């Protein structure tokens, strides 16, 4: 037990205790498991949330069909960005660098 600066026992730090990891069980129906191909992303935000619209652009057509919208808090957005960065680094470690030149690989309208 630790001592407080004033003497006597100090209260335990609840963050110092390690909790057993929670095992998550994913549920994935067939339709969701098929996924959605997206070659367009638009990101909007305000103080309380981020909105990401995923869509598809077909060459030669000016329309973008939005297929899915993800709305999340700034904290969740930061976790998403961190997870994507870690996975991109793992991918590049296995398969080599992904070209980052906007002009050569991004379809028209892709928002980065």
What is the helical fraction, as a range of percent? Answer: 25-40%
Principal-axis shape equals extended
Termini gap = 51 Å
Largest sheet: 3 strands, antiparallel
What structural category do the secondary elements indicate?
A: alpha+beta
Rg is 22 Å
Estimate the strand proportion.
15-25%
Number of strands: 3
Mean pLDDT over the full residue set? 85
Number of helices: 3
Low-confidence parts: none
Topology order in helix (H) and strand (E) letters: HEEEHH
- How are the strands of the largest sheet arranged? 1-2-3
Summarize the structure.
With 112 residues, the protein is α+β, with helices and mostly antiparallel strands.
Write up this protein.
- The longest helix is centred in the last third of the chain and has 22 residues.
- This protein has a domain of 62 residues.
- A hairpin with a 4-residue loop joins strand 1 and strand 2.
- By secondary structure, the chain is an alpha+beta fold.
- The termini are far apart.
- The chain has three helices and three strands; from the N terminus they run αβββαα.
- The model has no long low-confidence stretch (mean pLDDT 85).
- The chain has a three-stranded antiparallel sheet with strand order 1-2-3.
- It is extended, with a radius of gyration of 22 Å.
Reconstruct the topology from this structure.
Elements: H1 30-34, E1 40-45, E2 50-57, E3 64-72, H2 74-95, H3 102-105
Antiparallel strand pairs: 1-2, 2-3
